[in-house]
Amino acid sequence: MATPPTSGGGWPAPGPSAPSSAPRKERSPGRCGGSTPPAGRSSTQSRPGGAFKRPTPLPRGVPSDESPAGVRTLTAPDAASAAALVTDGLGADALVALFGRCTVDYEGRAASELGPGDRHVMLKPDGAALVHTDEGQQPVNWQPPGCEHDCRATEGATVVESRRTSPEESLVVRFSTVAHAAAFDVSDHETPEVIGTEADLKRRILEEPSLVEDGFTPLATERKTPAGAVDVYGEDDAGRTVVLELKRRRVGPDAVGQLDRYVGALRRDLHADAEVRGVLVAPSVTGRARALLAERGLEFVPLTP
Amino acid sequence: MATPPTSGGGWPAPGPSAPSSAPRKERSPGRCGGSTPPAGRSSTQSRPGGAFKRPTPLPRGVPSDESPAGVRTLTAPDAASAAALVTDGLGADALVALFGRCTVDYEGRAASELGPGDRHVMLKPDGAALVHTDEGQQPVNWQPPGCEHDCRATEGATVVESRRTSPEESLVVRFSTVAHAAAFDVSDHETPEVIGTEADLKRRILEEPSLVEDGFTPLATERKTPAGAVDVYGEDDAGRTVVLELKRRRVGPDAVGQLDRYVGALRRDLHADAEVRGVLVAPSVTGRARALLAERGLEFVPLTP
DNA sequence: CGTGCCAGGTGCCAT
DNA sequence: ATGGCACTTGGCACG
User: Could A254 and B249 be called an inter-chain contact, meaning their C-beta atoms sit closer than 8 Å?
Assistant: First the structure.
């Protein structure tokens, strides 16, 4: 076997060859720098200023087409080289990707086996592991954040193991061949702003209660009941208690059940003479849900976030 | 800018430079299997036979360290080269991965924006798109299978767009810098066999009904009611109707609501003199669920898949 | 295609 | 840690 070609200069070892990555939760403790760069995004690929993850800076003498922006790559490596790249990458808090022919074994809350096939494996520095095939949005196997990744070469195979406790779970990926391995130095401090959630719907209703009904007055959100917290709690123009259950999309019977539990709990908790109305607020309801609403004497108001 | 280095031999063009990937759905069309498996589950599921995806075989003459197992790679490419690799890869039904600094915009069922950061983007030949950061099991942004991917170089940026209809949704990833791009020729015809599902629990109960209760006799599975299909339907040694709702793990109030709806529907549908018992079968229940069970006169049997 | 429901659901936040 | 619930939930099976 020829020495596998390697591109990229690689990072300095974070320690004396850290045996593996420890699960990190803390995220850039003192992240001061403006998370929204106002202007002047760097057009070149050199990262400006501080590399946070990397304990020491990249050897800058290396031309940028060999070690650009913290990427290390191996093509068709032997098992030992692949394992070394993975271990080094994880030790440096890089995001590691492997592609090749492998088998996958999982044991934990359930158990599963997966025969040989070409898959893409991603190992994250926070302990998450993902095994993707060419199909589907969901990984065919995975491990949640908080695991410890370990990679070693065993009898010509590159073996990745991600393990966690409580619950005890283990994922083992055995590569007979690694076609490609890469370690990416990631920095991402942005969180996406999502529009159109249930929280947005709630906000809209609180700003303009008449959207639900003329004369409706919200009194509290997340009001506690023995059956759980009510989305919006208020009263109508006749002084009757009104419970709103909000959904951002078309709902089925489960949401009606939820609302019904809250209404029942409040009817028991409030004075016997208190009338309690339950109102489901959502874009639309299914047939079965509508029937259930009628059966339980509940109401529906169509509203879209 | 120097010509970006490329490793790997590349595939034969699937056509005259296919403009982009068309969403493929077909996957093992005749996936049948009865809803009430009396016995004899298929133990193996390895798909025999041919490579479906690739129209023509790989050029096998290429040395394995340059074009190993269908991998094409670019490190620090300019926008045009990156876009070309992505387009070619998708056209050849490859799994494409991009890593670099990008922004992400989504609009569809909801909407979201994500500022600049280093992310890993995966484009699958079935139309799925995934944007991963260094944290979390879940992608920070995504698009389900069935989309059409499109990649082009615009003003020095590499722009990926994944679009679908019904519902109309679009995901746009704008790379200011692509640190690494790769196209993987995937072949995977295995489906993992998972142990410990609700189906396993059902099988166990049908084989040994006394696990639920001495004298219990299953009569049907998935029996239809106006409120939905009941997991297991049967009768006890006194001839009373028994409805089982099965859960593979500890359950909350939602499962009790489900069972309660089935029991209510059957009480209305059967002769007025018919007694109907509802039994929740699961490893355990939460406190609120237990209270709800008592309130509705339902029962619980602890059982683990 | 909509309806209903399971999932190794995951993630977030409360107690 | 457990609990209750939202999620661009995804995925499958069925009418």
Answer: no
